[in-house]
Amino acid sequence: MMETLAALFTPQLVEATVRLAAPVILAAMAAVVCERSGVTNIAMEGIMLVGAFFAALVAWYTGSPWLGLVGGAAAGALYSLFFAWAAISLHFNHVVAGAIMNILAFGLTRYLMMVAYGRQGTSNAVARTLHDYKTAIPVLSDIPFIGKAFFDQTPIVYLALLSVVAWAWIFKRTRLGLSIEASGEYPMALETMGRSVVKTRYTAVVLGGVMCGLAGAFLSIENSNSFTEGMTDGRGFIALAANIAGGWRPVGVFLASLFFGFVDALQLRAQGLGVIDLPSELFLVFPYVATIAAVAGLVKRSRPPAAVGKDFSVEGGGD
């Protein structure tokens, strides 16, 4: 038994945990920003998928994964802008608008696969991926057990970790962070102070779109070398769960995302080593079941922003 545990719990498992958690961290940070501004964004699955497609397309066409990264972020921002227009300007129900955007993303990427590559399924492989630019930070990467996990990583993993620090600081120290928080808690008070709730929410959704686009780019040009239809595999929804479990706070959401990355890495390692004799289908669903269990245990302790999901207009205020 001890030998089995020793084979599972290694520095490589910690490194895989951080790497697999990266897209969830980015999408979960997007959820934090959107929901603390008052917008319920379940369109993140679709935004990630669009970002993954355009990251792979631009990287393949130009031969540069860095331009692919920019393309994925830009596509995520643009696609999220359509969601913002529907939910904020047209006053659609946020959940309904998000569901439509998710469905549209699956159809859109399938259609664009035919236009760009002449087939469905998997795109052409890119010449270079961002994994080729994996970089170790001197001294810090030598810290026992966790050094390589946090300080010997690929570019988007570093961006994911930096996003946690950046948003924790933004919410506490900047006018933008205070405006986003007021928009989700007391939108009419923010409007009375002369700051536009609509502009604040648009800003939050588009910034969230950039992060979801980066999360999609991780899947197609950093963790892989091509785009595959539906490759997000529910990570957008896992990010929503991480947001709730983390109490709508960057650090808490980061820890919840790491939990998903851990159980995902654990099931992959357990399968690879063959230490647990179970059908592969059970291994695949384990991270999602574990995440649901974690959310169920923590949801009662979490308090969402007061105005999240509520429509707002200057004339009528919030619903």
Q: What is the number of domains?
A: 1
Structural class, by secondary structure, is mainly alpha
Strand content: under 5%
Total beta strand runs: 4
Instruction: Tell me what the CATH architecture is.
Output: Orthogonal Bundle
Morphology: globular
- Level-1 CATH class name: Mainly Alpha
Strand order of the largest sheet: 1-2
Q: Please identify which CATH superfamily we are dealing with.
A: ABC transporter involved in vitamin B12 uptake, BtuC
Span of the ends, CA to CA: 57 Å
CATH-assigned fold name: ABC transporter involved in vitamin B12 uptake, BtuC
Verbal overview:
This protein is an all-alpha fold and 319 residues long. It has a single domain (8-123, 147-302), classed as ABC transporter involved in vitamin B12 uptake, BtuC, CATH 1.10.3470.10. Helices cover 69% and strands 3% of the residues. It contains 13 helices and four strands. The protein has a two-stranded antiparallel ribbon with strand order 1-2. A hairpin with a 3-residue loop joins strand 3 (312-313) and strand 4. Helix 2 (11-36) packs antiparallel against helix 10, helix 3 packs parallel to helix 5 and helix 11 packs across helix 12. The chain is globular, with a radius of gyration of 20 Å. It starts with a helix and ends with a strand. The model has no long low-confidence stretch (mean pLDDT 89).
At a glance:
By secondary structure, the chain is mostly helical.
What structural keywords apply?
319 residues, ABC transporter involved in vitamin B12 uptake, BtuC, 13 helices, mainly alpha
